[in-house]
Write a structure and sequence with these properties.
Layout: H1 3-10, H2 23-31, E1 36-44, E2 48-55, E3 60-64, E4 67-71, E5 77-80, E6 92-94, H3 110-113, E7 117-118
Parallel strand pairs: 3-6
Antiparallel strand pairs: 1-2, 3-4, 4-5, 6-7
């Protein structure tokens, strides 16, 4: 992720008083993004903010109905793929009963774990 994208997602405004900044609120905005697994916001007195993010990486492709989605190693759906994919780069997960997977959803929930079939 680019610095500008992280800044935009956080909704922190340039010139915002760091003493009035609600770090928890801005961390929540960032954590809503599927690609972000961890966030830390530090206030650096007198006028700086340091945002540290840990990004998820693609570890598998999930076939869900007629759609292909990228998934992290923890089963978080990162994004929908819009074009042809090369399944040789990542393992392909098939056999899910649910066709309603959404971005940022975890496919490895207890009730879905038994549905996985690695190809």
């Amino acid at each position: 992720m680019e610095k500008q994208e992280i800044f935009e997602i956080s909704e922190i405004k340039i010139g915002e008083n760091i003493f009035l900044l609600n770090s928890q609120k801005h961390m929540t905005y960032l954590m809503e993004n599927a690609w972000i697994s961890e966030v830390e916001i530090k206030k650096i007195i007198p006028d700086k903010i340091k945002i540290t993010v840990k990004e998820r990486k693609v570890s598998a492709i999930v076939k869900n109905g007629d759609k292909y989605l990228q998934s992290s190693k923890n089963g978080i759906i990162l994004c929908l793929l819009n074009n042809e994919i090369s399944v040789s780069e990542f393992p392909l997960i098939t056999g899910l009963k649910s066709n309603q997977l959404e971005v940022n959803e975890n496919i490895i929930g207890f009730e879905k774990r038994k549905d996985l079939l690695f190809v």
